[in-house]
Design brief:
The chain is mainly α. Helix content is about 75%, strand content about 0%. The protein has nine helices and no strands. α4 packs parallel to α7 and α6 crosses α7. The longest helix is centred in the C-terminal third of the chain and has 28 residues.
Amino acid sequence: MDSELSKADRTRQFIIETTAGVFNIKGYAGTSITDLTEATGLTKGSIYGNFNNKEEVALAAFDYNLSLVLNVVQDRMSQAKTCHERVMVYAKAYQSYNQKSFPVGGCPILNTAIEADDTNSLLKDRAQKAILTWKRTIIDIIKTGMNSGEFSATAEPESTALAMIALIEGGTMIAKVTNNPASMNKILKTVEKLVNQLVK
C-alpha cells in the first residue's frame, strides 16, 4: 500500500485488498459482514466507517480484482511485438488463472457476471463494462493487424473477439468446476487456432 495515503485511505485500501478474495470466492450474496470482519480483523463499525454498505465494498473489491487481471495482461502486452502476440496475450494470461498474480478465486468478470446477472445491477454493470472493454481491445488489435497487413483483410474482428472471450471464460469455468486445469490448455489451443486463422 502507498505510504503517502492518509490513514483513512490506507484503511480503506486494506479493507478492499483483504476482502477482494472473499467476495471473488463467495460472491456478493454469499459474503456476510462477519466474513468481512473476520478477514480484516476490523469491527463492523470500522468497515462501515469507510464504506456506506456491503455493496460499496463489493464494488471496490471487484475493481481491485479486475486490476490484478489487467496488470497481468498489461505486463504481457508490453512484451508482445506483433498483433498476433498481442491478441494471444489474453489466452496466455488466463492460462495462469490459478497463479499468485491472478485474483484469489479466479476471474472476477466470470464470477461476478454469473452471480450478479439477475441479482445486483451495479455489479452486473461492472462486469458488463469489463467484457465490453475486453472485446473492444481485441477488436482494435485485430483491426491494427488488418491495416498493417499482418492479418487478412477478410478477418472478422467482432466475431473473433466474442468467440475468444467465450472460449476463455468458458474454459476458466470448466477448469474450475472440474478441478482440471489441463482442460483449459486444450481450450486455449482452440483459441490459438482461431487467432492463427487471422494471419494472411
